[in-house]
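haha ok so turns out i had the wrong file open the whole time. this is the CORRECT one, sorry everyone. sequence first:
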Amino acid sequence: MKIAIGSDHAGFVYKSKIAEYLTSKGFQVQDFGTLSTESVDFPDFAHPTASAVENGEAEFGILICGSGQGVNMTANKHQGVRSALCWNTDIARLTRQHNNANIIALPARFVALEYAIEMVDTFLSTDFEGGRHENRVAKIACS
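then structure:
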């Protein structure tokens, strides 16, 4: 499975550790940066990550910034992207089951790294339930 990942400076350490973890589990990870803790603008990394999911180059995406909000808002500008800001494993599970989210946005300044990895595991291992949720998800796009 191909995973796109990106972050700003606040999420750099988490991004690096999560990418390393996923690679060790056999996932193909495409890292869209940033490459250090030097201050950057989060859209410069959220847009390419979301584009990879939007264009089918990656099945899922992971975005990380300080609050998770900025990268989440940016990703959701892309058609076909359903990015969800997650702060616990229950939200990570439900957003896959009910919303068929394809990007998880994480708040590096508000959750421990180990818990962020647990949320990613939950997100990637949870299937969309379909059924009654299909029609709702179909109504999300503006097109």
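The chain has a mean pLDDT of 97.
again sry for the mixup
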